[in-house]
Design a protein that fits this description.
5 strands; 31% helix
């Protein structure tokens, strides 16, 4: 089992869309996704990471560094769009993706990392806690 982690490119859009369906309901807009991936490729504050297993895209994680004006003004790492194909869950892919994005976050001098997960994703919550995340109260409002 050879897991390869790398930054996503626009050519990965179909595989990424399949992985995103783990956390969303149905396929995405491939044209929009491709344009966003192309922009992210050039943005040093975004890291769209994919995991490949035997050449197949099986996982994805998006890291975004954003500025913080509190105290010593160190940036914060936001993690979103964490997904691993169901058939590949439990193989250590998610853990490897977090290790990589956290390495990158430390390189960016981030103070801490945060993520938001849907209330019903209890299996994912156990995984995040096993990685050292503390559950805190958060709020979300759709615009």
């Amino acid at each position: 089992m050879d897991i390869v982690l790398r930054k996503a490119t626009a050519a990965d859009v179909v595989g990424l869309d399949i992985v995103m369906q783990v956390i969303s309901d149905g396929p995405g807009d491939l044209e929009k996704m491709q344009g966003l991936i192309q922009r992210m490729e050039k943005d040093e504050q975004k890291y769209l990471l994919i995991a490949e297993l035997d050449g197949e895209i099986v996982g994805s994680l998006l890291g975004v560094v954003f500025e913080d004006i509190c105290k010593d003004c160190r940036p914060i790492l936001l993690v979103e769009n964490v997904a691993v194909l169901e058939k590949c869950q439990g193989l250590g892919i998610g853990r490897k993706m977090f290790e990589e994005v956290e390495r990158w976050g430390r390189e960016q001098n981030c103070h801490y990392e945060m993520l938001v997960s849907g209330m019903n994703r209890t299996g994912a919550h156990k995984f995040y806690q096993a990685l050292g995340f503390d559950e805190v109260k958060g709020f979300k409002k759709y615009l």
